[in-house]
Amino acid sequence: MDCLGGNNSDIMKKIILSITCFFSLIVATGSFAQDNQTIFRSDGIRKSGGYVALSNKFTKINGHYANMPEFYGGWFINQKFMIGVGAAATTNHIPVALADQNFPGNKVTYQYGQLGLMTEYVVASTRRVHFNVNLLTGTGFTLQYDRREIDDWDWDSDRDDRYEDDAKFFFVMEPGVQVEFNLLKWMRFSPGVSYRKAFNAKGNGLTDSDLSNISYNVTLKFGIF
Asked: In this structure, is residue 154 part of a structural domain?
């Protein structure tokens, strides 16, 4: 009987051990089925918003001062990353040298503009003062037009500023950095600096180096941050 009892005890131990191993295997399998651990976390979209920015750039084109209003905006993801579009163009007189003028005029000036994909990465967006880095990549263009003095305009005539028909297009890239001040929950003030780089610009008497330069900007942003 002792021997039988001993055998029964051994059998029970083996059964308990088998059951324990079986459930341990299930737990281990479940653990291995979880997502792989990664260095860079991706928690998905937790918060979604958006904003628009009204900016004014101060820069130089062909060695002359250029005033350039800018508009950009897009989808703001997880209070960190914005993806959208941006556009900017010059508004003041940028003189064209006589030898480079494509047509005769009273006051021939350059027009420069750019349009493309705008991305912005914001660091510590919820803090009162923080900063961001941004990048515009897209198309730039130049053309010439006759910009007459306001005093010479005749509003009763059919005369319009004469624009060149053949605009010159090229690739442009402009990385930048801004300091941001959270004025209100829906408004931010963001002064900054950027560098505009043109690639393969041809025509109109302008080269890549004539169009590439530092820009200083003051920006107001409105939206859901």
From this structure: no
Tell me the mean pLDDT in the region 158-165: 59
Tell me the C-alpha distance between 87 and 172, whole Å: 12
Phi, psi of 11 (to 5 degrees): -65, -45
Residues contacting residue 201 through CB under 8 Å, at least 6 positions apart: 140, 142, 168, 170, 207, 208, 210, 211
**Total domain count for the chain?**
2
Torsion of CA 96, 100, 102, 108, to 10 degrees: 10
Q: Is 48 in a helix, a strand, or coil?
A: strand
Q: How many other C-beta atoms are found inside a 10 Å radius of the C-beta of residue 176?
A: 21
Query: Residue 94, Cα to own-chain centre: how many angstroms?
Result: 27
pLDDT tens, position by position, 90-116: 999 999 999 999 888 889 999 999 999
Q: Are 190 and 164 contacting, i.e. CB atoms less than 8 angstroms apart?
A: no
Evaluate whether 63 touches 100 at the Cβ level (below 8 Å). no
Placement of tokens 């610009």 in the chain: 201
Query: Is 164 found in the same domain as 94?
Result: yes
Which pTM was predicted?
Answer: 0.76
Helix (H) or strand (E) holding 17, with range, is helix 2-32
